[in-house]
Each structure stands twice: as C-alpha cells, then as structure tokens.
Amino acid sequence: MGGGGEVKPGKSQKGSAQRHLNAGFVAGGLLMLLVYLVAQHFAVSAPHVVITEAQEVMDNIKAQAGKNGKVECKMEGRSDTCEVDGDVRTNGTALSVTLVPATWSERREWMIRPYSRRFASLRKVAVTQLQDPAAAPPCAVTHSTPAVLFAIGGYAGNYWHDYADILVPLFVASRRYGGEVTFLISNIRFRPQWLVKYKAFLRGLSRYEHIDMDADEQVRCFPHVTVGLRLDKEFSIVPELVPGAPLSMADFTAFLRETYALPRGAAAADRKTKKPRLLLIHRGHYRRILNEPEVARAAEAAGFEVAVAELRGEAGEAEQARAVNAFDAVVGLHGAGLTNAVFLPPGGVLVQVVPYGKMEHIARAEFAGPAADMGLRYLDYSVSAEESSLMETLGPEHPAVRDPDSVHRSGWGQVFELYLAKQNVRINVTRFAPMLQEALHHLLRQRQ
C-alpha cells in the first residue's frame, strides 16, 4: 500500500479501524451540534420566515430552551424607541404593545412617544413585558410580518419636519424588511391628508395596508414590533446606527428617485451642450426675497437657465419631485421649501440664503450636513443687516438689528418672531455673484 494507506509497523489494522470509528463518532457529534446551533440562529433571528417542517423543529428547540423573547428600549438622544421581539401583541384602542413570555418572567413597562422628537405632545404607547403568559390577551389576527408603530403628530404638516421627523426615520426603521413590514399608525384622525400626500412613499416601503391604531379594536400578533422612530441626525442618517445593514442619505434619495420615477440620477451630466438649470424658490408670505427678478437676472448672467417657482407643501408629491429633479441647483431663503433638495440629482447644488440675526447655526444644522450626505454641494449666503427688511421696519438701534445675541438669549419665541416670521431680504447681487459662480463651476466640472 502506498502513501497514507500504509499500515505502520507496530500498529494493528484493528487499532486503525477503531481510530477511524472514534473519529466518525466525533464528526457525527460535531455535525449534530452544528445543526442545533444553526437551528437556534434561525429560530431567534428570523421568526417571521415561512413555517416549514424544519422551522417547526427550530421553534420546538427554541421553546425547549425557554426563550421568552426580549424588549430592548433606547431612551436617549432626541428619541425613545423599543424593539420588541418574540410573541408580540398589539391593542390599537389601548395603544399598547405587549411581549408575551414563553415562561414566567419579570414584568416590565415602558411608556414610549411614537414620534422621533421626545418633547412632541402626543399620546404615548405602553410597552409591557408580561410576567405571566396566561395573562396575555388572545390573538384576533396573526401577522407573519414584523411591524413598525409610529404617529403622525408633533410637527407633521411642516414639509421639513415631515421628512426629518417621520419619513427619513421610517425609511431607516423599515427598509431592512424589503417591503415585508406592516405600519401601525396612530394620530391619523388629526392629519388624514398626510397619508394621501405620502401614499407612494409608504407603498414603496411596505406591501401591506397600514393599520389605523386609534380605530383598531383587534388584538394583533406579530413576531417583531418597532415602537417609535429614531432620529440620530437632523434630516439625515447615521449609517453605523441603522439596524440590520447600513443605510445612508444617498440610499434615501435613491429610494425617492425609484418611488417617484425621477429620470435624472446625475446633475448636469445630461446637459453637455446646455446651461445648467437653477430653481429660485419663491416664498409667498414671509421670508421673501424682495428683489427676485434681479437675483434671477444675476443667475442668468452667471450662466444658468433660471426658473422662479413657489414649492407649496400641499402640492402633489410626485409632481413636485419630478419638477425639482429637472434642475441642477436650488437657491432659496431658509425654510421648509429647501427640503425639496432631496429630489435634486446627485452632484447638484443647494444654496441656502441665511436670514440676518446669527441664524447660521440653525440653518446649517437643518440643511448643510444633510445636503452633503445626499451627495449635493452645499453653499450658504448670510444676509447682512443692510440687506434685511428689519433695518427699515425696526431701525438700526433696535436690539434685533444691533444685538442679535440678546434676541437669542431671550428664547426661541423671539428668535422665530423677529428673524423668521417678520423678516424679508433684498439680496445684494454684486455680493451674491461669487456664490452663483461657485455653484456653476461645480456643475460644469462634472461634465469634464
């Protein structure tokens, strides 16, 4: 015999066979252990997988191991959220989410406001881990999908807050399920038009009809429920904090382009022989640019094709998305209208005109970082006292003009009233021209 099959001197063939037999027992044992561990993994991490004979075995192993499910609540930062995994039961009229343990456990309870800003005033959800499984209400409807419970409340209705507080956090909470998720929504009766406006968005994330929690009298059973929406960064996403797999604002804007069938996925690239297009946002009430025609002419002189339009929050979302996607750059005074930057093609430019009154920190927190995360070039132009209507309406000696810090010390109410609600601007186009040139050069560089 040659090679590895040779019987060595001093060792009997019987002894060799015994060693092979022992090795077989060890290998078999290891294989059984591996099957057990894999079964445990799938039983815990994917409880909503379609039931098969193998799944039933895994469920039996899970039950025999005494798994009671779990509640993990994160109550820090701006938001309160809970992830409830196991035998989870919801009661809409009671606005409650209950984890039913497989065996006797410790009773625990959390009160969660299902909105991304903790201080928003709306009804809380009672999240309870039962002590006695026998105390659980029976299931009226059993769902195979996980669920996300959130409220249309707080500042919903303001276009920026719709995105920053609800739509972006909802994308983060539910995208991992690839449409196999049910939305449990409270507070619908106060803002029924919200669901109409964002119907396509919600349908892009879930294949199932939403459930109106306030009107739902049935006890529903889910394998997993996320209670509340998490906001880790204003109007943006922190990829490493996303459950499941990392997501970014670039993923969010790509989702919007898919949802609303937006044709342009790159700024200026399809305009090799045409001027880049710039949208100047018109505001109809306050925080207006008083010399819009002059600013538009300055942008045209810089090399843009310019349109002036008012972007109203009550407009159809798909129609507005397509309109904005046709532009390469957006210019506007600080406000909710700049939220439309989510529809600009990547590589586009957002130019924010910041009102007078040391408003840079607020303005940049809401748009600078988010725009960069979307893959846009962000620029801002700070209005001087001479360009502000406050100089004329209040006079140069008024604290709002002479000492903005004193207004900020007096609280947000005064800041909003003076610098946001009562201020218009007249842009110095000579001073503004370099900003327009920088925006244009950024776009033209992408054609090279």
Automatic annotation (TrEMBL):
Q: Does the keyword GTP-binding apply?
A: no
Q: Which residues form the Glycosyltransferase 61 catalytic domain?
A: 266-350
| An example Gene Ontology molecular-function term | pentosyltransferase activity
Which residue ranges run through the membrane?
A: 21-39
**InterPro entries under this entry?**
Glyco_transf_61_cat, Glycosyltransferase_61
- Please give the pathway this protein is involved in: Glycan metabolism
What species is this protein from?
Panicum virgatum (Blackwell switchgrass)
The protein's UniProt keywords, in alphabetical order, are: Glycoprotein, Glycosyltransferase, Membrane, Transferase, Transmembrane, Transmembrane helix
Which Pfam family is one of those matched by this entry? Glyco_transf_61
Domain of life of the organism encoding this protein: Eukaryota
Protein name per the record = Glycosyltransferase 61 catalytic domain-containing protein
**What cellular component GO annotations does this protein have?**
Golgi membrane
Source organism phylogeny: Eukaryota, Viridiplantae, Streptophyta, Embryophyta, Tracheophyta
Mode of membrane association: Single-pass type II membrane protein
| Compartment(s) where it occurs, according to its Swiss-Prot or TrEMBL record | Golgi apparatus membrane
